[in-house]
Structures are given as C-alpha cells and as structure tokens.
Amino acid sequence: SVKQAEKAVHQKKEQSKTKCRKARRRHINLVAEFNHRQKKNIWLETHIWHAKRFHMVKKWGYCLGNSPTEKSYRACYRAMTKHCLLQDLSYYCCLELKGKENELLKQLARMCSIDTGLTFQEASCLSGRFEGSLYLYRADRYPEDMLGPVTFIWKPRDGSENRQLWIWVHPALKQDILRELREIFQCSEPEEICITESVTTSIQEEKQVEVVTSLGNKRKKEDKEGEKSVPVKKIIGDGTRDPFQSYSWIARTTGIVISDRSMEILRYRLIGPLSHSVLTDTLKAASVQTV
C-alpha cells in the first residue's frame, strides 16, 4: 500500500509537469491544441479576439461570436456613425466560376430574373467595378423555388474572353446553390480531389500531442526546433464537408470550372465614415512591373 501511494504521488508529479501554464502556452502545444479543437467547428481568423469578448455559438460548421459579454452597443454605434466598425464575414461561402463570359451569362440567366432587380449581366457589375446582389432560383423555375439571396463580384476583364466570378452565399444555402450550379453547367467531373492537409496533419497532430504529453519536461531548445515541424492546418470548406470530397469540378464540354473557395478567401465588412481612410492607410498598392 505504501508503494502504491508513492507510485500515485510520483505519477501526479509527472502529470503536473505538462499542466503548467508555461508549457501549455508554448507555440508547439497551442497549434496542435487549436487544430484539434477545430475538427468539428472551424474557427475564423479573428476567433481568439472574439472568444475573449463574445459569447460563442456553433452554427453551420463554424464557431461564431453571437453577443458581446460587455455592454458595447454604444461603442459600436459610435464607431458606425463617426469612425469605423469592422465585421468578420468570413463564414460566408465563396463559390468561384471560371470560363467563357458568354457561356457563364447564358446559364446564370436561368437562375435569376430582371423582375427582381439586377442580374449577373448588369453593366456596372460585369465590368468588375461594383458588387451586385440578387436572388437565385432553381433553373427555369422563377418565380417559384427560390434558393436564396447572394452577392457576386466579377473579376475585371483582362482582354480575354475567359472571366472569373465569385458568388458569396450564406453557409446554410451553399449546398443547394452549389448543387444547382453544378447541374446547369454540367460540372460533374472533379477537377481536384480534396485530400486536404487537415487530414494528414490531424494524424501528425495526434502524434505531436503524444510527444508533448510524454516529454512534457523537454527543454526550450527542443521546443523551438520542434515549432518548424508542427503542421499549420489548412482549412478548406465550411466545416460540414467530408475532407475527402472534391472542391473543384469541371465541365469537359465547355471548360467551365466551379470551385468551392470557402475559408480560402476571407471577407470583412467596414461600416462608418472613416472606412475608406482605414483602408487607404492599411493597404498599400503593389508596384506592377511589365516586362
């Protein structure tokens, strides 16, 4: 009994070494832990900031800030009316269409109507200068079978007949709209099979966690060297898709390509009179060199 008691005390001492805050907060441990916690619900890039200040909810495969923990309504209103307020809308899903402009417009016209407002063919939007918004319907079913509202942005023309279109949809509508787009463009064959890095890294992360737990008392030098070997998880999709599912499809007859760019292209909304000033001070134009 005395030996068992000594053994229990010895085991507790070994376990406590891995539980000290200094060890938990090391980069090698944090990356593995954060990636492990995102297996079911994806975090936005601003998750840590929101988690400290908001009540978080799990919706549509994401972990989102729902309501502030403090009374910040006046501060937000003041920012919107006098300064600048930023919102993270990266949980919205981005569907990318690439192909010949006339072919894209021909098929997309079947999913919308001029009676509801703008269409994908609106001149100001087609040039790529402005973002458009409209309601999508199942092909040739207007005014019945509405799929939902979307926003879209055309990439400006580069002299080629091939164009690039980004359609932003709510995650609750993504699967239905993606299915309809694939059907009207006949994009049935996967262009790329999504063997994502997150699948391979999850195995590596589990091994890394085992190493961390078994070698909790390793030195800082070993940690710094190990940081380079810790995989950074690349998240593709909206958190509800199977990791082995395709994320890009092509139509062999027309060459149209539909890709799911969710969580690859981030989206932020700036509200307030100083929004433009914030953007100009934050973003610097790159110097384009022509050969």
TrEMBL record:
Protein name as annotated: POP1 protein
Domain of life: Eukaryota
Organism: Regulus satrapa
Any one GO CC term of the record: ribonuclease MRP complex
Gene Ontology terms: biological process: tRNA 5'-leader removal
Pfam families, per database record: POP1_N (PF06978)
Residues of the Pop1 N-terminal domain: 5-99
